[in-house]
## 1
Amino acid sequence: MRYSGFKVIREALRGHKGWGPAWRDPEPKSHYDIIIIGGGGHGLATAHYLAKIYGQRNVAVIEKGWIGGGNVGRNTTIIRSNYLLDGNEPFYEFSLKLWEGLEQDLNYNAMVSQRGIMNLIHSDAQRDAFTRRGNAMILNGADAELLDEAQIRAEYPFLNFNDARFPIKGGLAQRRGGTVRHDAVAWGYARGADQNGVDIIQNCEVTGFRIEDGKCLGVETSKGFIGANKVGCAVAGNSGRMMSKAGMRLPIESHVLQAFVSEGLKPVLPGVITFGAGHFYVSQSDKGGLVFGGDLDGYNTYAQRGNLPVVEDVCEGGMGLMPMIGRARLLRMWGGIMDMSMDGSPIIDRTHVDGLYFNGGWCYGGFKATPASGYCFAHLLANDAPHPVATAYRFDRFDKGRMIDEKGMGNQPNLH
Ligand SMILES: Cc1cc2nc3c(=O)[nH]c(=O)nc-3n(C[C@H](O)[C@H](O)[C@H](O)COP(=O)(O)OP(=O)(O)OC[C@H]3O[C@@H](n4cnc5c(N)ncnc54)[C@H](O)[C@@H]3O)c2cc1C
């Protein structure tokens, strides 16, 4: 079934009796060519591109809960490609280009909104760093624009310019950045994959791998053993737990990251704003809520809930940047488990087990990476070779000291 304006009007006139389920609910087969573990954004995007681009149709996505219940439905919905380093910027720009065509590709309204992102500058040194970043972006085909204080005052008159502890000196804008309705991304990819024959199996937990003579033969699940020629793991915050079942200890820690939404307000924020002197980022949803977040909770955990000190810390950042936020009431908040890698960059690679592949280490930034991550993981699974924009995302960079340390924070995951 194709969705269209015409179809909506037709169904409205017929009492909405003609809509079918967006994807099937199949029982698992005994064997697939490729199994993807994890029905988050990355797993579903991988399945979609495997079927659509690489012609692999005997594929299953196995999800322990429901699709969209993990980080893909818990993030603050920001997309951008404003990275500095060679290993990252081409990959994230590829992803942004895929976002720009996603709704046509999937025939699904994911509310992709290129409302722009503004990284605020608070010191001369930061202006130098952001100028360099903007130049790296432009060299890689992305858009970047440096604004001075007067331009920021004109565009964002509600920010604290007069008595701020960290005065605002300018900003680095990426006008093509913005937001996307996060759970619609999971649903759109699920529908796209299903239409091309992929089985999406929900409420089925992978409990282990069957590995014989160094080869992965399939996965043990709560619904029994399912065989596969290849298995790709894309379980985000559960990466450490999952890959330990294949005898791997990953350079990844799991931390909780919280998100917050205020009550609905009249439109006030033109796009995404990030505070350059602390950790606070905010946008306004189409329903009017201010959607914001900040630092991770510092301890390791697999629990999808956070603690109060971070709530205070994030709200302080918001108050420092735009004191008007203090009059809004917090409506809801939640947490997701982040797969924090040691250099802040992801991994899309084969493992030491034949037929077992890994995708993870997305830290704070995996939502914007969803299309490119799926595309590149599908490429790796189909061709046994990395996609050209993901060649740096290998395990052996930790062995060889070729870190992609975008923030220059070293091996401290809670700082990335
Ligand atoms: C509060 C918050 C805000 C964020 N904000 C942004 C942002 O603004 N921009 C951005 O780019 N990124 C953001 N992120 C990061 C981004 O959401 C994640 O990096 C990304 O969603 C992770 O990939 P995923 O969608 O595949 O993960 P998930 O949706 O978590 O998918 C993994 C899936 O694997 C399943 N699974 C786990 N173990 C098993 C098992 N044993 N068997 C079967 N299934 C299993 C889980 O149930 C889950 O559904 C944010 C994250 C959080 C939590």
Note: Residues 89-106 form the longest helix (18 residues).
## 2
Amino acid sequence: MIWLGSGSRRSTMVSPTSSTLHTAYDSKIEGNVILTRVDAAINWMRKNSLWPMPMGLACCAIELMATASSRFDISRFGMEVMRFSPRQADVLIVSGTVTYKMALAVKRIWDQMPEPKWCVAMGACASSGGMYRSYAVLQGIDRLIPVDVYISGCPPRPEALIEGLMELQKKVEREESTMAQKKVYFDAIS
Ligand code: SF4
């Protein structure tokens, strides 16, 4: 458990066993103290700084680009930092028709993104192949990589993408502790 102080007074981070424990009960600084858990603080920071990796594959990508424009302003959610390097991105936004020719390239980019990472399937094509029931088109990106949020529409409006990203924020907020997420790794080294 931690206390995070803020405001005009000096910030503090103390453990409950610390000799500065009494500062949390000082009525003069009470308004500047937040009581929380490390996991909640980490999830709060993650959900408000999701950096998208745009994967524009067809017409839906135009709506994705519009989402970053001043009219819709994705930066209100801390997501304006579109990264074109998978190593710096948290959210893969697959927008457009995923052909078999492109599918393995999308998978490779997903594999290159560091954990924790999330995927949004934007539009009918990315979610299910859309109207292309064809030998050349993958019938949904979830056949290759796990999808966290599906957004319907052909194409979805930028508002729909923003709503989908807000749903993703709710999901990130509820995620298990970092220890639980990495249980396999911790078990392997213990
Ligand atoms: S869902 Fe519609 S708009 Fe989006 S890529 Fe497919 S055909 Fe184009």
Note: The chain has a mean pLDDT of 83.
